[in-house]
UniProtKB/TrEMBL annotation, chain A:
NCBIfam families: one_C_dehyd_A (TIGR03121)
Highest taxon listed in the record's lineage: Bacteria
Organism classification: Bacteria, Pseudomonadati, Pseudomonadota, Alphaproteobacteria, Hyphomicrobiales
InterPro entries listed in its UniProt record: Amidohydro_3, Formylmethanofuran_DH_asu, Metal-dep_hydrolase_composite, Metal_Hydrolase, Metallo-dep_Hydrolases_sf
UniProt domain Amidohydrolase: residue ranges: 43-487
Protein name: Formylmethanofuran dehydrogenase subunit A
Species assigned in the record: Chelatococcus sambhunathii
UniProtKB/TrEMBL annotation, chain B:
Protein name: Formylmethanofuran dehydrogenase, subunit B
Length: 552, 418
């Protein structure tokens, strides 16, 4: 039996209603245990003066896969500028917005994160995604499978095959790709771009299948609900980045018709067309709609100033954005009757009207959405900025005077267009614990994560109290992963690997022959080759399979 | 080991739907007959792969140190000893699965030295454009179903990618209204390619030797609506066809292009870029034998750089010229030669050689250490990437010839060093 006592800290565990409770946290054999159950001799960490929280959970961060490798390829200057020196626990990687696998695990762990989820697994690339994620140390991972532009699904919907057939297909794909949730990226739009459509509105028909994004969205919302997946549809909506898309976003919220829906990087979908530059903040309207619709959750996709690279499955949007690539190069790919990707390097500048307003819109969303359990802290890494900017973002949320200082640096034209100064709210530590841990665990259905109650996994973080919240959250004093101390005084001291979360909903076996035929005739290789086996996930060790309603 | 689909009375087994790892097309309809350690490929396989899959019943050769047979442990120890004195090692060949490459990265990071794949010339011709300017590319299934006009730029790639047309441009495709049109620009199809293309319309646009770059520049001007200077190859009909196509694809085998390959690719990419303003088009840049693409991908996610990366003092840097296998080898004291997919010979050099190589490799000069390794997809399971970069294919184990994997050999050498 291995045991660890984290003593004398103030426990901040919103999921269990504990706010600054002074108590010891005991981890026995990798799990949180009752205070009384610690053996006599136990390794003790002195957390006096520290805040003790569960390990951080990032619900949306592009950490792996083909698009990340393309980004690394395009950003070789960044790779040269940020090298990770070889050390006892360090690899030989580097990068910031294009961080390599080992460095990703290290930088997240140092900030106190122990689980990070890849939100855009293109099915054809799932095997690569899992292989790469297995090289990321410290973190639990899992993938959201991108559906909604795949020809098989659009054909099912267009041909009126019915909800049951869709459910079987979605379940088959989740099993084949070993993913944990369903993501939709620009529903039907990526597919439409392959048929040369350049725009896709919520009620516009796909040029080939003649079905609308609304239909695709509603069908997949129903599928995940009926399969009983914990996480709702994770939606990157139509018209990303387009001025005036606030209306699309409001219409999309309405289209959910009260069913659970998670809308991602909503900052990029909260733009109005007011003002002399025809670009304005829609944050107030969107926040109001989120506040009124308890079925909706969002993550923000905050923009942070500096060089980054945008990587998305939404080639339709990225092709529109190619002209603003900085440096001036970009890569797009159509992918396997499945989806696509577009990688466009970009530098957000505080003196740019548009970028400065994007920054303000993100913060307005954070501050105007009232329920911290339905909003999650993200920069859509690396699209709004690298995840290493989270401590700075936390300070912006918690420290109004700091926020106002930063606001004063913005392009004057943007300041005139934002109401940010009128918002007095400051996030409390408890709210930070909610948006970075408790709420992500809840929306993902990870019942044994994001809290410090008995039975939870032993992912525990100690932060030293510091009025400078950016400093406080940049380097945790201690990080414990599954009961092992991995960070001590901000330094990595051990190397462990996390687990891969997935769901395995049941499906009607008759779909197998249909998929075999689809792969033989259309895709051009075998469905049997496409399916990922259990042995391929972390060598057959380290999967966590979550229960669904339709379980096998 | 996977369950054989048909067992034979002879004690042999027939395995269906075997994935072929050699050229990068990732065909997975090969039938293998395995009897003891003997292997024969049957249906599905192309001529080249059949030869590469074939194995005799003889036992695998022993490891050797300085030409003398040695136990595996002794060979591992000898390799570790050599590397512990290495000043400037070069890791080359790199014919290995993803796990093998992962272990080579770890070892190279500790010993220092550079890493390249023996077939990377074409990959770097492609990267010269994709890295500096970018492109719009596509994958095999997109071509198969969307592409109504397939333009082969330069020599026929099916020389290297044997079943290319059968796999990628078959007679029918989901969104094709009529027969697919295949244009060979500056090359011509082999007889076998013609057979694979039956049902498609074939057109050949001859380009005089050395004038492909010029032809593509003219094509680019034409699709942009400009009028190129008079003379040269007649390209207006092709330009019109490209503009009228629903989904045109320009494909090339980068390794098969000439010395001006970089420029050919850059011009072809520009044509696709222009077409995409009004219609849809994409590139299919082919490169990728012996898991070249997988090695490059593994480098990108672990190191951040593509192949041709050097390690010094634990820090990696990338230099396409200096760390290319051939140039790095000029100043190398030790060559670690890795070739698990085929008996590829190490290049001539003055360096001492540690060969983690196919058992049938015939060396021009006996390596200081020879460790025969198994082939991913025959002797052990593994992972390899397809030429289109997106799809990777699982390789399975079909026999036990007592051969160690590259990953295992490198891991043990690494442990022996410390």
């Amino acid at each position: 039996m291995s045991a660890l006592r984290i003593a004398n800290g103030k426990v901040l565990d919103p999921a269990n209603g504990e706010v600054g409770v002074e108590r010891d946290v005991i981890v026995v054999d990798g799990k949180i245990a009752d205070a009384g159950s610690a053996p006599a001799s136990v390794e003790t960490i002195d957390a006096k003066g520290g805040i003790v929280m569960a390990g951080g959970i990032d619900i949306h961060s592009h950490i792996a896969g083909g698009k990340s490798n393309i980004a690394r390829l395009l950003m070789v200057e960044e790779q040269r500028a940020f090298r990770e020196p070889q050390g006892p626990f360090c690899g030989c990687g580097g990068g910031l917005s294009t961080m390599t696998a080992h460095a990703t695990g290290c930088r997240y762990a140092e900030m106190g994160y122990t689980a990070v989820f890849e939100p855009a697994v293109v099915a054809a690339n799932a095997r690569h995604m899992h292989t790469e994620m297995a090289d990321i140390p410290f973190l639990d991972t899992g993938g959201y499978l991108v559906l909604g532009n795949d020809d098989f699904l659009l054909d099912l919907i267009a041909s009126g095959a019915g909800q049951q057939a869709v459910n079987d297909y979605v379940a088959w794909q989740l099993n084949a790709t070993k993913c944990m949730a369903i993501k939709i990226v620009n529903p039907g739009g990526i597919n439409a771009f392959k048929f040369n459509a350049r725009w896709m509105q919520l009620d516009e028909k796909n040029p080939h299948y003649e079905i609308t994004p609304r239909t695709i969205l509603q069908t997949l919302i129903r599928a995940v609900t009926e399969l009983g997946l914990a996480h709702p549809i994770h939606l990157h909506g139509c018209n990303l980045g387009v001025p005036g898309n606030e209306q699309t976003t409001l219409d999309t919220i309405a289209a959910a018709e009260g069913m659970p829906l998670h809308m991602t990087h909503v900052q990029f979908h909260s733009y109005g067309t007011e003002g002399d530059r025809k670009f304005s903040s829609g944050a107030a309207k969107i926040a109001e709609a989120v506040n009124k619709n308890p079925n909706i959750s969002i993550d923000v996709g905050q923009v942070m100033f500096g060089q980054t690279v945008t990587a998305s499955a939404d080639l339709m949007s990225q092709h529109r954005n190619r002209g603003i690539a900085s440096p001036g190069r970009w890569i797009g790919m159509d992918i396997e009757m499945d989806a696509a990707c577009g990688i466009v390097p970009f530098a957000y500048k505080d003196k740019s009207f548009v970028n400065a307003l994007q920054w303000a819109i993100g913060l307005e969303l954070f501050l105007l959405v009232e329920d911290p359990w339905r909003i999650f802290l993200t920069t859509d890494h690396p699209n709004g900025g690298p995840f290493t900017t989270y401590p700075h973002l936390i300070r912006l949320l918690m420290d109004r005077s700091f926020r106002e200082e930063q606001f004063a640096k913005l392009a004057k034209s943007a300041r005139k267009h934002s109401n940010l100064l009128e918002i007095k709210r400051e996030y409390t530590l408890e709210e930070i614990a909610i948006v970075t841990r408790a709420a992500p665990a809840k929306i993902l259905g990870l019942t044994d994560r994001g809290h410090l109650g008995a039975g939870a996994v032993g992912d525990v973080v100690v932060y030293r109290e510091d009025a400078d919240r950016e400093a406080m959250f940049s380097r945790a004093a201690y990080v414990v992963k599954d009961g092992t101390v991995i960070v001590r005084e901000g330094e990595i001291v051990d190397l462990v690997y996390g687990r891969t979360h997935q769901v395995t909903p049941d499906y009607d076996a008759s779909i197998e022959t249909k998929m075999d035929r689809w792969f033989d005739e259309t895709i051009g290789y075998k469905a049997g080759t496409y399916k990922i086996s259990d042995e391929e996930i972390r060598g057959g060790q380290g999967s966590v399979k979550h229960a669904t309603v339709r379980a096998s | 080991m996977t369950e054989p689909s048909v067992s034979e009375a002879s004690g042999g087994a027939t395995h269906k739907d075997v994935v072929c790892p050699y050229c990068g097309l990732g065909c997975d309809d090969v039938t293998l007959e395995v009897s003891g350690t003997a292997v024969e490929a049957k249906e599905g396989v192309c001529g080249r792969a059949a030869a590469l899959f074939r194995r005799g019943a003889e036992p695998a050769p022993s490891a050797r140190v300085n030409g003398r047979e040695a136990p595996l442990d002794a060979a591992i120890a000898a390799a570790a000893e050599l590397l512990s004195h290495a000043r400037s090692p070069v890791y080359a060949g790199l014919g290995a699965d993803v796990d093998g490459v992962r272990q080579i990265i770890k070892l190279a990071a500790r010993t220092g030295g550079s890493v390249d794949h023996y077939a990377s010339t074409g990959l770097f011709r492609n990267l010269a454009t994709s890295q500096r300017r970018g492109w719009i590319a596509t994958t095999l299934a997109e071509v198969r179903n969307h592409c109504d006009l397939f333009v082969v730029v330069g020599p026929d790639p099916s020389e290297q990618f044997h079943r290319l047309y059968e796999r990628v441009t078959p007679k029918t495709g989901r969104f094709l209204a009529g027969p697919r049109k295949i244009v060979f620009l500056g090359g011509a199809p082999s007889e076998e390619a013609r057979a694979q293309l039956e049902g498609s319309t074939i057109e050949i646009v001859a380009v005089p030797e050395g004038e492909l770059v010029e032809a593509l520049s003219r094509l680019q001007a034409l699709v942009s609506g400009l009028v190129p200077p008079a003379g040269g190859v007649e390209l207006a009909p092709l330009a019109e066809a490209l503009k009228a196509a629903k989904y045109a694809v320009l494909a090339w085998n980068a390794g098969g292009l000439g010395a001006d390959g970089d420029l050919v690719i850059e011009r072809a990419v520009a044509v696709v870029e222009t077409l995409n303003v009004e219609t849809r088009a994409a590139c299919l840049p082919l490169a990728g034998r012996d898991n070249l693409i997988g090695a490059n991908q593994t480098f990108l996610w672990n190191v951040g750089f593509p192949l041709r990366t050097g390690f010094r003092g634990g820090i990696a840097d990338h230099d396409q010229a200096a760390y290319a296998g051939a140039s790095a080898l000029k100043s190398a004291d030790i060559l670690v030669w890795v070739s698990a997919f085929r008996p590829e010979r190490p290049p001539a050099s003055d360096a001492q050689i540690i060969a983690l190589a196919h058992p049938a490799t015939e060396f021009e000069r006996e390596p200081e250490v020879f460790i025969p390794v198994g082939q991913p997809g025959l002797d052990h399971a593994g992972l390899a990437f397809r030429t289109d970069v997106v799809v990777s294919v699982p390789l399975k184990r079909y026999r036990d010839a007592g051969l160690i994997s590259v990953a295992e050999a490198v891991r043990r050498i690494s442990e022996g060093r410390s």
